[in-house]
Write a structure and sequence with these properties.
Blueprint lengths: L5 H27 L15 H10 L4 H17 L6 H26 L10 H8 L20 H23 L3 H14 L11 H11 L3 H10 L2 H16 L5 H21 L3 H6 L2 H8 L1 H17 L1 H4 L6 H27 L1 H6 L12
Helix pairs in contact: 1-2, 1-3, 1-13, 1-14, 1-16, 3-6, 3-8, 3-11, 4-14, 4-16, 6-7, 7-8, 8-11, 9-11, 10-11, 14-16
Length: about 350
């Protein structure tokens, strides 16, 4: 078994924390602050506390980090000379579906307690294919499990990207141009049919990083000081939050910044990489898939019983943080149980992907 890259695990941990913060603070604002941050714009929130929450809510960037990590790891797998497409697809199904099905069962079981009508069998069937990730089809996501929209992008990438590598090799197209061309087609061709798919660029950006040699990864990591990367990340996300960047501009800018962060995590030598390798963060990263699938359940349970949990004498901000901590603890517990039941068996029989010194063919 290869050693896991703890910095990459920590990056997964950061991604899932960002996702949690988006959904927790969005629910909190709609419940206690008098407005839905999906509708009420930044300038319309006058309280400084609300503006901070708005910025956090609009950090919908955890999913994009997951996309880049997936693109990187899948490309590393597909570049192996021993790659077998059928076996790869089978392993992806075994990796994705057990935790997904367990989360689906948990959501269905808790629906009566949370007064949520159960989904129809048709909705369940279409969600099993992750078609809720295609808005034009009008497939509703299952309550508490709406985050699975992102699995449509993941599964589509899993099925298509390895073919790009295999076909590119057979026709003699170098891997980098093949990835760039495929990424642009995947991101913009669906737009002709009215389906916004620009988020595919994150997956293909991660795949591009996977083509870097170890020396190239180190060169990128060392070319950008840690403080500059952090400042660039905050600048890009803040400009997007207040509307100074369009979605398309943000996607390209974030993909570039994310690629640098990915290189730093792979290289493992910077202060950012060492921070990401912090054990609690990397351990959270290991259960991040289950956390991602179930954190909305824990958040919903906390807000269902908030009147029992709320501490009247504590004040607004302490209660907000306290309820968030309770929801985070609940999410972590559910994720740990799900990991033990539906994910651990996979990692016991599959070695981590070698990210250290693979030289693409």
């Amino acid at each position: 078994m290869l050693d896991r890259n703890r910095s990459l695990d920590g990056l997964r941990g950061v991604a899932v924390i960002l996702t949690f913060l988006v959904h927790y603070w969005g629910t909190y604002m709609a419940t206690f602050r008098g407005g839905n941050p999906n509708v009420v714009r930044f300038a319309e929130w006058n309280n400084p506390f609300d503006r901070v929450l708005y910025w956090i809510f609009h950090s919908h960037h955890g999913v994009y980090i997951f996309f880049m990590l997936s693109g990187f790891l899948i490309c590393r797998i597909a570049l192996k000379t021993s790659f077998n497409y059928a076996a790869f697809v089978g392993k992806r199904v075994v990796r994705v579906y057990p935790a997904f099905l367990l989360a689906l069962i948990i959501c269905a079981a808790l629906s009566p307690f949370l007064l949520i009508p159960p989904p129809t069998w048709q909705t369940v069937g279409l969600n099993l294919l992750f078609l809720n990730g295609v808005p034009q089809l009008g497939v509703p996501g299952i309550v508490f499990n709406n985050v699975t929209w992102s699995l449509f992008y993941e599964m589509a990438f899993y099925l298509v990207f390895p073919l790009v590598v295999v076909v590119g090799r057979r026709v003699g197209v170098p891997i980098v141009p093949a990835i760039v061309l495929a990424g642009i087609i995947a991101a913009y061709l669906p737009g002709v049919m009215g389906f916004y798919a620009e988020f595919f660029l994150f997956l293909f950006a991660g795949a591009l990083v996977a083509t870097f040699s170890q020396s190239a990864v180190k060169a990128v990591a060392e070319a950008f000081p840690d403080y500059a990367v952090i400042a660039l990340y905050l600048l890009i996300t803040s400009f997007f939050t207040v509307g100074l960047l369009t979605t398309s501009q943000f996607v390209w800018a974030f993909a570039g910044c994310g690629s640098v962060i990915l290189c730093k995590a792979i290289d493992g030598q910077s202060a950012i990489a060492r921070a990401l390798a912090w054990k609690p963060l990397s351990e959270l990263g290991r259960i991040s898939y289950s956390f991602y699938l179930l954190h909305s359940v824990a958040i919903s349970l906390v807000f269902k019983e908030w009147w029992l949990l709320y501490i009247q004498r504590a004040g607004t901000i302490p209660n907000a943080i306290y309820l968030g901590a309770a929801a985070f603890a609940g999410s972590t517990f559910l994720a740990w149980v799900s990991y033990q039941l539906a994910e651990r068996f996979y990692f016991k029989s599959h070695a981590p992907v070698d990210v250290r010194a693979l030289e693409p063919a």
